[in-house]
Specification:
Structural class: mainly alpha
Shape: elongated
Distance between the termini: 116 Å
Strand content: under 5%
Oligomer: single chain
Low-confidence stretches: none
Number of domains: 1
Order of helices and strands: HHHHHH
Helix content: over 70%
Number of strands: 0
Largest sheet: none
Length: about 170
């Protein structure tokens, strides 16, 4: 005795199994994307730190350049024209790193922690006279959104510095 084949039931089972396979595939692809994004963020963070260290290396390795860099705080007038140009181009390297970091943040490749570090560095270094002068020279070479970002960070840094200055006790006179 032959049982009739219920093609509708077989079809429904096949569709269900197919749907389950699609869901499993999507979960797998989602996990792969998440892992890939994490690897890209890690690579981005490593690259940014390597560039950052490369930028500051001349200050660490050269006493001559350390002196030039220190004069960039508030004594630019003490530099020769050649050393002033060296310093301004050095500061431009920092802008290039910040811009690279800014672009990677747009692509969601920079973590909040790395972005916080970037913002603090821009605010702190933006107080330097050499950075202000160099920014005035090179600012227009960057797109407006980056210019706005840097200006905003410089402003925040300046306000924080002014607030610290108001809160610090006056030096006793001798």
């Amino acid at each position: 005795m032959e049982l009739p084949i219920n093609w509708d039931a077989i079809s429904a089972i096949g569709e269900t199994l197919g749907a389950i396979a699609v869901v499993i595939s999507l979960v797998y692809v989602g996990r792969q994307l998440k892992q890939n994004t994490a690897m890209m963020r890690n690579a981005s963070a490593t690259e940014i730190l390597e560039i950052d260290h490369t930028i500051i290396l001349p200050i660490i390795e050269s006493e001559e350049f350390s002196e030039i860099w220190l004069k960039g705080d508030h004594r630019l007038n003490e530099l020769s024209e050649a050393n002033l140009q060296r310093l301004l181009l050095f500061e431009r390297r920092a802008f290039t790193l910040w811009h690279h970091h800014f672009q990677q943040r747009r692509q969601k490749l920079v973590t909040d922690e790395m972005w916080h570090y970037q913002n603090q560095m821009v605010r702190f270094l933006g107080l330097r006279e050499a950075v202000k002068v160099a920014w005035g020279i090179f600012k227009e070479t960057y797109e407006p959104s980056f210019q706005e970002y840097v200006e905003e960070q410089f402003q925040i840094g300046q306000e924080a510095s002014s607030q610290r200055d108001r809160q610090s006790p006056a030096e006793p006179s001798h």
